[in-house]
Amino acid sequence: MKKIFLAVLAIAAVACSSKPTATILKGSVPAEASDKVAVAIPDIQFDTVVTVSDGAFSLSLPVNKMVIGSVSAGGHEARFVPDGTTLTLVWPEDEASELAIRSSSKKSVTARLAAVDEWMAWFFENYPNAEDQDAEFEKYVAKLKEIVKDNPDNVLGLLGVTSLRGQIDAAELMEIISSVSPEIQENPGVAKMKAALESALSTGEGSMFTDFEVEQPDGSVKKLSDYVGKGKYILADFWASWCGPCRREIPNIKAAYAKYHGDNFDVLSIAVWDKPEDTARALAEEKLPWPQIVNAQRIPTDIYGIQGIPHLILFGPDGTILQRGESLRGDNMDPAIGRYIGN
Question: Tell me: the pLDDT tens digits for 56-78?
Answer without folding.
Answer: 999 999 999 999 999 999 889 99
